[in-house]
């Protein structure tokens, strides 16, 4: 018997060794697919943590199988080891001996998950891998490792693991709007390695050629699917870049601009050099359509021109405002990723843009249907001579027959906006003087620049209702100031639009200017007859006022330094009481650190306990059913013997399918003894089982098979060690293990 058991264990270890290459391949697949996040998440520390957990899961599973455990039990050992690994990396000192999670560890993980969600919302790309995001990624790697091991090793279905890898690779591709070549190629190669490691099963079902065909088709489908995800653009889907998407072209670009401004981090978007002493702003997008709810771009229209290298840019502005000094600007894109190109005002010629770019003379913007700004280096020639106040004062309002979209307003304008405008322009008739009064009111009044107040107080956005609330609360950022002035300009019949773009940025020591994500800005432009579109600056502390509309008073004297520059604004705080006329309405209550919510962790723990108890429950119900049938039906004595055989198997006994009941009874006698009540019960039950199988059935005889089975089962369990009994309860092999049943011919 001992020799037989050694042979069986030797076979189990050999099977475990055959799974080692598969475990290695699965680990490489997860690590390769997670590398797609490297351009999205700054640094590599989080990736190393993921690698540690992946190695722990797959390595422990492989060692367990080599030691002779079943495939499924190996997956369980890998999952437990992975939990120890993530606890060691992210436990924050709350675990026993640094490995075993405690209730405090679960609470810590819940806090990390909550902070990860907030951090993802706040940060721009590439995001900083703080503790929350690191935990989220490592936890995802743990779940992926366990899932792939269960699929490929325990269940024996290796091919579908490519779908899990694809699910990991696609999200970064959506964020970057492109498929990173190196991570994608590494994932595809690792997937082929998985199929190779599982070659024995695949060859049995169609050979090596079929295996390679499946891998190539899966890799091709993954590439096409990733390139077809929403938001993808770019003629080359295999461009590796750490670029970030800055402005969204969705329903509300202004709202997306606000979200970008509220995110932490201040990543470099592009750098430039210019011949101008006072650098210009860069424009990206123009919003001229307003339905009372959302400011939006009119999109592509007739009159667009394909940009050819070195050709002049056609302009719709034929006024004298473009007479001035020629300015040369050279731009090198760093982190900006979009289909709109940042160009300075007054552009007349551009060189170096690769791909198909369209110039809109009306908006003075440049966009592409298929290309992105990633990696572009280009130069722009521009002329921008701003008008004088006298020119604007002498200019009139354009004819009502033109600029219909730039004048459109809904009929139901909130009374707050109307009353405020009436006060601002009271006694002023000249259109320019009215526009100047609106700018001065917003910039030099009691308004404060705040990134947090609109969000915390629930009036973030660009609709008429938001504008009305903003005029009451008097705290907001460039979106609110620009939308308010553009709306008021239309109310006095001046065509208006909002420009999204960048402020000039910071001067570097070498003469280069650096533009960062915090330089994102929105400002209004108003149209004056004979002059053209003229920018104004109503946002306090953001950029300088133009020479034709200077600041009447110093904003620096009227507001604190924290209100002037978003880089110095405390993003999680509201404006001071002095910044608004209604301190109680404008300043939210002091933010308190929320108590950790342990309910999700508790529910998760209960669900896990319930899932782990399912095999034991199934096993218990099977025993009750079998013994009940053995007691009530004399023809069901084999059910009692099947229960004895499964109990022995659950305790780790080997019982080949070819063994007869008498052979198993001899093993029981050698283990528990054959004297007394147990021996009598074994003799009776074996005799009844053999008669039920091979002899005539005696229905009138009371066999009491269930009572004999209970005696034998109790003796078997008493002879087992405590570990074997616990293992039998938690992990019943007769329920979970695959393969032939030890007494398959007996079970019903």
Automatic annotation (TrEMBL):
UniProt key word Transmembrane: yes
GTP-binding recorded as keyword: no
Range of residues in the leader sequence: none
Entries under InterPro entries matching the protein: Bact_TGase-like, Papain-like_cys_pep_sf, TgpA-like_C, TgpA_N, Transglutaminase-like
Transmembrane segments: 20-40, 46-64, 76-100, 120-143, 150-169, 181-199, 211-233, 598-618
Pfam families: DUF4129, TgpA_N, Transglut_core
Domain of life: Bacteria
Domain Transglutaminase-like: 470-540
Gene3D superfamilies: 3.10.620.30
Region span, Disordered: 539-597
Assigned keywords, A-Z: Membrane, Transmembrane, Transmembrane helix
Protein name: Transglutaminase domain-containing protein
Species of the source: Paramicrobacterium chengjingii
């Amino acid at each position: 018997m001992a020799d037989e058991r050694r042979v069986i264990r030797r076979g189990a270890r050999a099977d475990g060794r055959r799974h080692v290459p598969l475990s290695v391949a699965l680990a490489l697949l997860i690590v390769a697919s997670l590398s797609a996040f490297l351009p999205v998440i700054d640094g590599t520390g989080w990736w190393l943590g993921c690698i540690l957990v992946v190695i722990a899961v797959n390595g422990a599973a492989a060692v367990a199988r080599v030691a002779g455990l079943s495939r499924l039990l190996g997956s369980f050992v890998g999952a437990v080891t992975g939990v120890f690994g993530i606890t060691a990396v992210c436990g924050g000192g709350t675990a026993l001996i640094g490995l075993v999670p405690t209730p405090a560890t679960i609470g810590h993980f819940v806090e990390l998950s909550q902070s990860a969600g907030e951090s993802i919302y706040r940060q721009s790309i590439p995001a900083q891998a703080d503790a929350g995001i690191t935990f989220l990624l490592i936890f995802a790697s743990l779940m992926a490792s366990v899932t792939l091991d269960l699929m490929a090793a325990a269940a024996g279905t290796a091919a579908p693991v490519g779908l899990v890898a694809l699910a990991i690779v696609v999200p970064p591709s959506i964020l970057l709007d492109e498929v990173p070549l190196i991570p994608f190629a590494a994932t595809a190669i690792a997937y082929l390695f998985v199929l190779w490691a599982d070659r024995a099963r695949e060859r049995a079902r169609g050979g090596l050629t079929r295996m390679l065909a499946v891998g190539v088709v899966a890799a091709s489908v993954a590439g096409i699917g990733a390139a077809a995800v929403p938001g993808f653009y770019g003629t080359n889907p295999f461009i590796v870049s750490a670029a970030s998407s800055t402005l969204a072209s969705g329903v509300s670009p202004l709202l997306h601009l606000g979200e970008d401004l509220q995110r932490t981090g201040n990543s470099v978007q592009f750098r430039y050099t210019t011949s101008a002493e006072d650098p210009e702003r860069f424009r990206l997008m123009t919003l001229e359509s307003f339905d009372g709810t959302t400011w939006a771009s009119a999109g592509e229209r007739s009159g667009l021109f394909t940009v050819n290298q070195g050709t002049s840019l056609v302009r719709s502005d034929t006024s004298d405002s473009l007479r001035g000094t020629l300015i040369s600007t050279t731009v090198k894109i760093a982190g900006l990723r979009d289909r709109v190109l940042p160009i300075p005002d007054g552009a007349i010629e551009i060189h170096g843009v690769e791909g198909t770019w369209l110039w809109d003379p009306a908006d003075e913007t440049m966009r592409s249907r298929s290309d992105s700004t990633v990696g572009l280096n280009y130069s722009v020639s521009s002329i921008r001579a701003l008008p004088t106040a006298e020119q604007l004062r002498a200019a009139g309002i354009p004819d009502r027959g033109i600029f219909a979209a730039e004048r459109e307003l809904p009929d139901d304008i909130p009374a707050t906006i109307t009353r405020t405008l009436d006060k601002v322009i009271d006694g002023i008739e000249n259109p320019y003087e009215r526009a100047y009064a609106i700018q001065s009111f917003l910039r030099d009044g009691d308004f404060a620049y705040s990134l947090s107040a609109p969000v915390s107080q629930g009036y973030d956005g660009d609709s008429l209702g938001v504008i009305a609330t903003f005029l009451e609360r008097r705290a907001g950022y460039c979106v609110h100031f620009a939308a308010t002035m553009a709306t008021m300009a239309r109310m006095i019949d001046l065509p208006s639009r909002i420009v999204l773009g960048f402020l000039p940025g910071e001067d570097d020591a070498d003469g280069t200017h650096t533009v960062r994500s915090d330089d994102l800005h929105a400002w209004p432009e108003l149209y004056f007859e004979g002059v053209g579109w003229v920018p104004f600056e109503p946002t306090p502390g953001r950029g300088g006022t133009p020479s034709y509309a200077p600041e009447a008073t110093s904003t620096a004297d009227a507001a604190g330094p924290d209100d002037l520059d978003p880089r110095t604004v405390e993003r999680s705080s509201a404006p001071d009481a002095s910044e608004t006329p209604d301190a109680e309405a404008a300043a939210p209550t002091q933010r308190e650190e929320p108590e950790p919510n342990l309910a999700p962790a508790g529910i998760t723990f209960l669900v896990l306990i319930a899932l782990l108890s399912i095999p034991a429950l199934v096993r218990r119900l099977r025993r009750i059913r079998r013994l009940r049938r053995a007691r009530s039906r004399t023809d069901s004595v084999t059910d009692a013997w099947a229960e004895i055989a499964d109990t022995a198997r659950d305790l780790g006994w080997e019982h080949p399918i070819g063994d007869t009941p008498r052979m198993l009874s001899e093993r029981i006698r050698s283990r528990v003894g054959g004297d007394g009540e147990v021996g009598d019960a074994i003799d009776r039950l074996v005799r009844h089982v053999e008669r039920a199988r091979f002899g005539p059935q005696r229905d009138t005889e009371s066999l009491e098979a269930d009572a004999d089975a209970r005696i034998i089962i109790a003796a078997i369990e008493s002879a087992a060690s405590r570990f074997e009994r616990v293992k039998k309860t938690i992990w019943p092999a007769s329920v979970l293990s695959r393969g032939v049943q030890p007494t398959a011919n007996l079970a019903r």
